[in-house]
Structure formats: C-alpha cells, structure tokens
Predict the 3D structure of the following.
Amino acid sequence: MTFKKCTTCYHIWNDRDAFLSDPNLMLVGYQVNFKVLEAGLLLFQHDVVGCQTTLALRAIQFTDLYDGPVFTERKTGSEECPTYCLYEEELGKCTATCECAFVREVLQIVKNWPKRA
C-alpha cells in the first residue's frame, strides 16, 4: 500500500512515518478549509535533485497525531485571532481558543517530526 507518490519523480512513501521522516521533505505551507477543517491541505516541498515538487496532503491524514483539546468556536477575525490561517506560508502555533487551533497543533507535530539520517 502507498501512502503518497511524488507526482514529478514518482518516489513512493509506503507509510506516513516514512513520509514524515524523509529528510528531503519539508512542510512549507497550509491551505485552510474553513468549512471542513480536516479537508485543509498541508503542503510539503520534495527537495531532491531534479524534483522540487510541492505535494499536498489533506489535514485528516495527520489529525490523529494530536490528542489535545479541540475548541468548538471559531475566532477568525476576532481580536484573539493572530490570522495565521489566512497566510499559507505561516506555520506558527495559534494561541487562540479557536476551533482552527487544533490544526495549527498538528502543523507543529508534523513540522517537528524527527528526520532520519
């Protein structure tokens, strides 16, 4: 079974751990989907010679990595909101008690996943 296949060089990652552990992959962005948060896209750069492809994977493929609180109220546009979700390249942790904050926590887990040597 294949977790992800690069659309340019056709490299295959058999499972999520192999994908996240690959030192040639870097999380570079997040495209929010405010209607269905788990349908948002995590964007990865595949950085190998001859391949600089951006790969998009749905947030739902990573949300089980987070086991903390999930808030029910959206704070987007409020004074509490740092507006991170509005900027694709912003990967920072959100401190708002917002329903979107759990995806920002998932981004931190993915971004800090240990890479194999």
